[in-house]
Amino acid sequence: MTEKKYKSFWSFYPYYLTEHKNATSRTLHFIGTLLLIGCLIAGIITGRWILFVLIPVVGYGFAWAGHFFFEKNKPATFTYPLYSLGSDFVMFWHTLTGQINKKLREAEHPV
Fold first, then answer.
1. Where are the domains of the chain?
2. In 10 A of CB 106, how many CB atoms?
3. Biggest CA-to-CA distance, the chain
4. Treating both helix axes as pointing N-terminal to C-terminal, what angle do 23-46 and 81-96 enclose, rounded to 10 degrees?
5. What tens digit of pLDDT does each residue of 18-64 get?
6. Number of H helices, E strands in the chain
7. What is the DSSP letter of 74?
8. pLDDT tens digit string along 62-103?
């Protein structure tokens, strides 16, 4: 087993962003995260447990399709599952608030 390189979430996040350079892949991640949030809220409101079962399917399904078909890399989830999950929500927020391109540039060219 290889030693994990990242010891904190915020040291991992720039790496995570560099693994998501493809805009289509980021869009798929965004859709998956949005559907995940929708399933969670709808599941809580309606009490339909199948919606909770769908959360990992839509979340990982869209994200992994982005990696396999567009990024052509291995999802960070396999090595850093918690950092990767958290980073997906941060990337979602940065996309939603229009900060993603700035954050990508910062990750590619750290100061």
1. 26-108
2. 13
3. 48
4. 100
5. 999 999 999 999 999 999 999 999 999 999 999 999 999 999 999 99
6. 5, 0
7. -
8. 999 999 999 999 999 999 999 999 999 999 999 999 999 999
